[in-house]
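Why show two proteins at once? Because comparison is the fastest way to build intuition. When a single record is shown, students tend to memorize it. When two are placed side by side, the eye starts asking what differs. So, the first record is below.
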Amino acid sequence: MKRDKWRTLERVGMLEYYPLLRLVGYLPPSDVWEPTTPLSDAEASTDLRTWFTPLRRELISRRAVDRLSKGPLGVLNRYLNGEPNLTLKIVGIERYYPVLRLLGYVPPGEPEQNA
């Protein structure tokens, strides 16, 4: 779309992007689009390390999540890899929840987005 300035989302719509967005965790409202397969247990997990499936690790920039969460670079990646991290002991993983919610992650104790 970057190369074709005349092709806008108003003209082509979002429908063709929903399957890709589903892979990273975003599910649009059910009155707009229904996925053909339900999310797997891992994809719907509230455990962040499980939720970041191998495919999501390829598609989602953890560096961008760090930056958007205003945290030090590399902290989320170290957390996902189970490496000890002093920063998270101080600020907590909850710092990342607002940004990850935009991608469809539902933190522990919160209701499902399409419930």
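Second record. Ask yourself what differs from the first in the token line.
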Amino acid sequence: MLKTTNHEHKEAIYFLGEQARCLTQAGSADAQICRKAAEFLIGKDENLKSWLAKQIDVKPFADNTQDYDTEEFEGKKDSLQIALKDLRALAEDESVPAVNRAEINDATDIVEDFYGVEL
């Protein structure tokens, strides 16, 4: 995970990256929404750019199986809640460009749907 970074949006970046990975594995175009939102949050941080590139470097499933490659760790539910609150706040933050707010909002909906949670 992104344990070594002090990035203010590290939980959000983590879940966007994980979601982009799962959607890429599923062959869904929605993977790009999560990737773009993560890239916006990452900005110019080269270490996080590298991390995201590794996360999404997967191929779609060859058949209809869906065994997503997600990381399980203690406190994941708490981290997810932090990430979703952060993402919702960013989606409403008028200092964030409108196009990025829309991407963040859409990506948050996707993450909430995947995990079956809603704020």
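One difference worth noting in the second protein: Residues 10-62+75-115 form one domain.
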